[in-house]
Amino acid sequence: KAKLAGAGVRHFFTVCSLCSKSIRGPRFRCVHCEAFDCCVDCEAQLGERHAPDHVFEIMLKASDPINEDLPVGTKVEIFGLEGTASALNGAVAKVLCYMPEMKSYDLDLPFGGGHPVVPAENLQPADVATGAEAQDVLE
Prior knowledge:
The longest helix has 8 residues. It is built from 3 helices and 10 strands.
């Protein structure tokens, strides 16, 4: 269930303490350690590679999302939509405008795919893999 619920979300400023890769999908954060995080791919190894009595918070949403007031033309990836809108999950679109009163974006889908309005919480910059690249989007 956690794998499905957090699928696609990127934790831009966090890397897995076990494999050193940027975390995409559910993030397992140790509540006992100051900076110990684990990705879903390494989660099965926690019992062997981390203190067995430590408790982990499962984070299905990014703690520092980069999704508000993105510039026009920014390429974004859609994720986390449910129901019939879930067909858009994984699609990459360009920002046409941000609507702060709705906390949503009007997007331009490629190949004449239309102009859906998507909540900011269901968008993240596309083609961004590291914290440094994410910082560039913010500046």
